[in-house]
TrEMBL record:
The lineage of its organism: Bacteria, Bacillati, Bacillota, Clostridia, Eubacteriales. SUPFAM superfamilies: PLP-dependent transferases (SSF53383). This is Aminotransferase class V domain-containing protein. InterPro entries: PyrdxlP-dep_Trfase, PyrdxlP-dep_Trfase_major.
Length: 487
């Protein structure tokens, strides 16, 4: 076993042995019995945009039935609004949209940016975003502040300049990025980059820091945003007696102290079952409805009516000028109108979440059991420090291994999100060599969920398939750790 003194030496050795790791991964796929007829056709999550899950039978049937009927789209939108109000109350409203990213774009522009029209020079606006995972979503709509974060998104994506991340920045808007107390931002990966390691986040200390930051930028501050997840690896492991992440509650408190909206990016989340805005204090939540929820590709914005009015106006859903509660008019973001079939599948998915949430909860319970059993097959040296958490919000199970890096020892290799975009995240690319479609597996976190060839038409887990996929990921961890000098 080759032992390394420094992190960069370990990652350099992994880079030099990618071919060997791939060869062992392919051999391991045969040894653990990954079915040849399934290779490339099943995987560890159906909740990523690049390869979404097949639709459940009830979702397909609802879409097919509605597709043969004459139904005004405004009627379907109002049905979505009614379901949301059934659960959250009349003070909440909703607006379907093409994607979660489109929802963030329209929401931030409606609520965070300064006005563009009228005489006089424009002013600058700023919103606060904690330095957490997936910052290229919720944190990329303004110019990064302070300056040390100016290139934080430089390698995320394949297009630079105006047609890349820089082009997402909105009118005179800045993003104030705030590192979280208790988090670590160590440098890891073959594509060596700082990564957010968030299991140690202190939400009360974070409140004080966010509040101080808000006070500093109060003259220009227009909002606060964060993720809506609820697991330790995302920084939301500390919960109150009701199971609500404390960090989200304190972010809402600071936002409301300054009379500002708190906008939550809950792309990989479930309405009703997961993040509850009545408990966290969130004013607007944006969902990707084709991820955990299981609808066709589309997004959904849910929020308090006060903030939904300008968002719905921007989408052309606010109503005709002579007075209606809904319409399909032309507005700034009419380009984000979802289609009829997307609306039909959203309605069915929301009805199931409202009336039969166990359909989405049970597969998570079954998957967690499999993951815990398979992780136990790892050598003891690797198991120590692994934390497994299930999330009904995301319909997923989180494997977090930040804890393997303790007492100055090297742990299970951490691949940065830059590794994913560079194609050097071995926990993803190695899995593809085994014929298993990979999941989100960076920043010391592996997020596994049902759906991608591992559930039946009713959404129930096919345990044998799911176990083989999980077993492949666990075996790959072991192979990579061998070349990392850990075993």
């Amino acid at each position: 076993m080759t032992e390394f003194k420094y992190k960069f030496q370990m990652y350099r050795h992994l880079q030099a042995n990618i071919g060997n790791i791939y060869a062992e991964a392919r051999q391991a796929a045969d040894e653990i019995g990954v079915p040849k007829e399934l290779r490339g056709k099943f995987g560890l999550t159906g909740a990523v945009s690049g390869c979404p899950s097949p639709l459940r039978r009830d979702i397909i049937e609802a879409s097919e039935k509605g597709a043969t009927e004459v139904v005004p789209l405004a009627k379907l939108v109002d049905e979505i609004r009614e379901i949301v109000k059934d659960v959250y109350g009349d003070e909440y409203d909703a607006a379907p949209i093409t994607t979660c990213e489109a929802g963030l774009w329209a929401t931030f522009d409606a609520l965070f940016t300064p006005p563009m029209m009228g005489r006089g020079d424009n002013y600058r606006a700023r919103y606060i975003a904690p330095l957490e995972k997936h910052m290229h979503h919720q944190g990329s709509y303004g110019r990064p502040f302070p300056g040390r974060f100016k290139d934080i998104f430089a390698d995320r994506g394949s297009t630079a300049g105006e047609l890349g991340f820089y082009g997402k920045r909105q009118n005179n808007l800045d993003t104030v990025i705030v590192p979280l107390p208790g988090a670590r931002y160590d440098v890891h990966g073959i594509k060596y980059h700082p990564v957010p390691l968030l299991t140690g986040v202190d939400p009360q200390a974070a409140r004080e820091k966010i509040a101080a930051t808000a006070q500093t930028h109060a003259a220009m501050l227009t909002g606060i945003t964060s993720l809506g997840y609820d697991t330790p690896g995302y920084g939301y492991g500390t919960k109150d007696d009701n199971g609500t992440p404390v960090l989200q509650k304190v972010l809402a408190e600071v936002a409301h102290q300054y009379d500002l909206p708190y906008v939550v990016d809950n792309a990989w989340g479930l309405p009703f079952v997961g993040h509850d805005p009545r408990k966290t204090g969130a004013d607007v939540i944006v969902y990707s409805m084709d991820k955990a929820t299981g609808a066709a590709t589309s997004g959904l914005i849910i929020g308090k009516e006060e903030f939904m009015v300008p968002i719905r106006r921007a989408l052309g859903m606010h109503g005709d000028r002579y007075g209606t509660t809904a319409s399909y008019g032309k507005a700034a973001y009419v380009t984000f109108d979802p289609g009829k079939e997307a609306l039909l599948t959203q309605i069915q998915a929301l009805k199931v979440l409202r009336d039969k949430p166990e359909i989405l909860i049970r597969p998570v319970d079954d998957l967690e059991k499999i993951i815990r059993e398979e992780i136990e097959t790892l050598p003891a040296r690797l198991r120590e420090g692994i934390m497994i958490s299930k999330s009904y919000n995301s319909g997923a199970v989180e494997i977090n291994y930040e804890g393997t890096w303790k007492d100055g020892k090297l742990g299970i290799p951490v691949f940065s999100i830059e590794d994913m975009y560079a194609g050097t995240n071995l926990f993803q690319t190695g899995l593809s060599q085994m014929g298993v479609i990979p999941t989100i597996a960076y920043d010391g976190n592996i997020f596994i969920s049902p759906g991608l060839g591992t559930t039946d038409e009713e959404g129930m887990l096919m345990e044998e398939r799911a176990r083989v996929a999980v077993r492949a990921q666990v075996r790959l961890i072991e192979i990579v750790c061998k070349y990392a000098g850990l075993i």
